[in-house]
Design goal:
The chain is mainly alpha-helical. It has one domain. About 75% of the residues lie in helices and about 0% in strands. It is built from six helices and no strands. Helix 4 crosses helix 6.
């Protein structure tokens, strides 16, 4: 009798333990589902913010690059007139004035970093399930800094040398044919020749030589593509 009761008690106890374990496992699973759902919703919000922010950054970069390209193109047109050994005729002076006015660089790309800074400050990069996107976001700040270094060289040159030379020899509007205060002999100087070529090289460095812009554009486009909310619908 006692042996039979003990067996029943053991079976009952084991059954209770199994039920408790099943209950714990189910509770853990439900909890994991809730965590996954919360993280998924959080990721979707973060991706949407990243997508919109980087689309705006792309628009800004395209505008900045357009200014670099215009300055680069107009500087090249000035170089095509070299060597200037005598003061150009009025028609050429008009063209030269236009090229010089549009040869100024000094613009910089300053992207919004709100979404990435939020990820950095909260150590939340691991919430991005796409490893490629996560790695691109982690590398973004360094890529921007590398590219901005090229722009800084050009900006410093434009402010500290290019504009200084212009302000010493020419009126603000570069109206060579109508304002006698312009020192047209400065156009024939070696210094002018040097500054124009240096301006061209610095702009070319930004656009072509360094390769930083190409990497930046490719990364920007890829982040926009990978963060598109439509991919996760």
């Amino acid at each position: 009798m006692e042996t039979g009761k003990t067996g029943k008690y053991l079976k009952y106890a084991i059954g209770e333990i199994i039920l408790v374990m099943i209950g714990i496992l189910l509770a853990l699973q439900v909890n994991n589902w809730n965590i996954d759902r919360i993280n998924s919703n959080k990721e979707a919000t973060i991706l949407a913010n990243i997508h919109e922010e980087f689309k705006a950054n792309k628009i800004q970069l395209e505008r900045v690059v357009k200014t670099h390209q215009d300055a680069h193109s107009n500087t090249a047109k000035i170089i095509n007139l070299f060597p200037l050994t005598s003061i150009p005729q009025p028609g050429v002076l008009d063209s030269l004035s236009h090229y010089m006015w549009n040869s100024f660089g000094g613009y910089t790309f300053n992207p919004s970093q709100t979404s990435i800074n939020a990820l950095i400050n909260t150590s939340s990069f691991d919430i991005i399930s796409n490893d490629e996107l996560s790695n691109l976001l982690i590398s973004w700040n360094d890529l921007v800094k590398d590219y901005q270094e090229e722009e800084k060289f050009a900006k410093d040159f434009a402010v500290n040398q290019y504009e200084v030379f212009f302000s010493k020899h020419f009126t603000w509007n570069l109206n060579f044919n109508k304002d006698s205060r312009n020192d047209l002999n400065a156009l024939l100087s070696v210094e002018f020749d040097y500054l124009i070529h240096n301006n061209y090289d610095l702009l070319d460095q930004i656009l072509n030589t360094s390769g930083e812009l190409k990497v930046l554009v490719e990364t920007l486009d890829k982040i926009i593509q990978l963060s598109d909310p439509k991919k996760y619908d």
